[in-house]
Amino acid sequence: MILQHAIEKAGSIEPAKVAEVLNGLDVTTMFGRTKFTTDPKEHGLQAGHEMVLLQWQSRNGKLVKEVIWPKPAKTADIVY
Known about the structure:
Layout: H1 2-10, H2 15-24, E1 26-29, E2 32-35, E3 53-59, E4 62-69
Helix pairs in contact: 1-2
């Protein structure tokens, strides 16, 4: 989906043109934020996505899945 977007935005399948679009990309998809680092040592690594961390917690005697990270999406505090 990201590659298709980059190809369409570049108007070409030429690698340099597609790479230029990908280097400047910062979008949110149904999988979360996508942004690639352009630092020479880490070029192309996903830098914009935060993993969602879930934890099973007991609520009213039942186990429920709670989001504990990232903060904007959390539904409960972590239980240690």
